[in-house]
Amino acid sequence: MENNQQLKLLIVDDESAIVHFTKKIFDKKGFISFGATDGASAVEVFKKERPHICLIDIHMPFSPFDGVETLKQIKKIDQNAVCLMVSRITEKDRVTDCRNFGALAYLLKPLDFDDLDRAVEKARAYVKTS
Amino acid sequence: MNLFAIAGLSCGISCAVLAFVALLFGKLKVQRLLAYFNIAVAVWGFGCFFVGIANNEAAAIFGWKFAHIGGAFVAVFFFHMICEFCGVRHKALLIFGYVQAIIFNLISWGLDIAVTKTRYVYGLYYNVANFYVIFIIVVYVLLVSLSFFEVVKFFKKSKGVARVQSLYVMIGFAVGFIGGTSTFSPEFKIDLLYPLGNFGIVIYCLIVTYAILKHHVLDINVAVTRAGIFLVVNSLVLGIPFWIGYTTKSWFFATSLAAVLATFGPFIYSYLRRHAEQIILKEQHAYQRALRELSETMTHIRDLDKLIKTIVLEVVDLVKVNFSAIYIRDDVHKAYRLRQCYPQDKQGLFPKSISLDSSLAKRLNLNKRPIFGEEATKLENIGTDIGMAIPLFTDQELLGFMFLGPKQGNRIYTSDDVLVFETLSYSTSLAMENCRFWKEIEERQRFARVQEMNTFSYSLAHEIDNPMTIIIGQANLLKKFFLKEVVMPAEKQKEAEEELGYILEAAWRVSGMVDAIQDLGQRSSGEFSLLKVSDVVDSFCKLYQPIFRSSSVYFTKEVPEDLPYVRGVKAELMQILVIFSNNAIHAMLARRDKEKKINLKVELRDPEWIRVSVSDNGYGIPAEKLEIIFAPFVTSKASTEGTGMGLYNAKKIIERHKGSIWAESDGENKGASFIVEIPVAKDVTAEELKGKEFRGRILFGFEEGGKNGK
Lengths: 130, 710
What we know:
The complex is a heterodimer of chains A (130) and B (710). Helices cover 43% and strands 19% of the residues of chain A. Chain A is an alpha/beta fold and 130 residues long. In chain A, helix 2 runs parallel beside helix 3. With 710 residues, chain B is an alpha+beta fold. Chain B has 19 helices and 16 strands. Strand 5 of chain A pairs antiparallel with strand 16 of chain B.
């Protein structure tokens, strides 16, 4: 994939402040980033914008459905969506669920920006150009 | 009627009564033999009575022949009884004894050649001994002497109750036999004294009766009392009217009186019986009642130790035994362990533990009934004589047993006692189960609390985490981008960068602690995974650094790089470090004079074992306690502070990890080291290693590089 092509990024987290600074950081890095603070609106944004990479928080108590469900729905829309799960939850079956539903990676919160940056850089290689 | 007849009659009656009582209430072989022996003596006594009242030779000869039926059997029954009592065997002699008695009587009654001649002396037609009579008398002397020889032997080596009993047997029978045998002398034409010897036999009966009542020989004292009262009441009821009728010849009045008395007789009998029993058994009833009450209250006690203590104390107090001790099955040590003994100074006499398959335990398991005195003492090597060993059972499982010492004054345990102790043992077992049940409930409640705490700490962690993520993210944003976009002097820029660095560092520390709290809380799964001891130590340090600081402990650690993997549960291994550290902190509490130091050292002892040691410079452990501290409920802390379960739990965890755990100390006030060793993981598969190689915070992902190649 061409490096100069602007990549679209979707950040899903029920904590708006997290969405806010993550967006800001990636914008500065040259991405076009979108934010969503619940699963439903994340799926809406995905349908509309078709972001290349999604960062999804799993534990979202205020969302109609949680991160795993969001992942499932996004994958239903686009089988090739590149999704990175970002969460504290480390219960084994949730992690396995994410893997089974096609998440590319599972990152543990809280993330150092460098970690996140590296993960997104790696994920870039999985993005299929349309 | 002459004195000889009276002696014979009283001898006959008293022995018949004894025989009746022994036959009626005796259950053991030795008691039956005592009855037969008394029948034989009674026959002899009645025979003598006939002789005494005989007014011609023929009647006297009949009396003598009758007397000699018993006389021939007396010795062999006595001998047989003594063999049984002392537990010795003389089979050939016994057969010989019975055969000679039977043959003598066949000769005497069949051929009529044993008792044939009398001479008139003391106003009696006294038998003159011929060959046959001499023969049975010789056999008689032989068997009786041998019997006494055996009793004396038995007396010398017996102890406690048996010794008292055998003393009475010895004295009683000696008096009886000296008396009885003396009546033979006129048969040999030795006329030294008027033959009053049969009164000796009456004395023998009195002594034996006394022994039965006082020392529970035969364990039929109650029965004897009842029989005695029965006899007295009935002989009065029938005797008084008969006597009145006999003397006044007004039989109508006598018969009416008899009818009236017979109506009241049973009431008088039961009234007297009740009172007599109350007097005889007063003491016994008192403690039996107390034990029953104890049984009832026991189930309210929920603490096993308290329960056991109560039982041993009360039993000694109520039953007046010399000691009591309780052993309880301990599955950790695979043995019955001494839990409590009273009085305390007898503790040295009892072994600390008795193995599960010792002959005593096996026997109790099989019979499920108390074992008495010498039998119990023989089964298990204990420093003292045991009065009774009582099993504690539930559901066919031997939970433990109780030893009771001999009763004070060497009195015997009666069958009533046994019943009471069986009840006591049953309710003790129930109460023990009850205690275990309560303990289990407590355990469960504690477990539920722990789970609740885990859930709570999990959501707490989440709540802390989000703001931390924001703090870290925003600080990062400021540091990496914002600072660079703002125009300011390079010096200020560097300063601001430094300040943000402090914020980030602090934030990461909080985040690390939240991690560690979650790690520690995650005990429920208990699944083994591949992990590095250094990670365990890191998490532990994050959690415990603040605690060390607040306890002013100087904490150091030595962890080499690149240790091999082990298999285990991170939370559990952390728990061990927590237990060790808590103990170490506690051991140094009193140390005001010196710096408090804890050193945590991890080393690869050899290619297969990783050793972790936590050393302190606290009050140390005396050498004799180095092992016991890993047993449950052992604590040096005040009872409010610790459960005494810490090191026991650590041991359990290490056992699950197939490692070993021990403590080292140079002695009191020289500090201590707690050490665990766990095996290095073998056969680590590539699959397991996947993801492990990713440093940092990626659980899975990016294993195979880009699919959609660059």
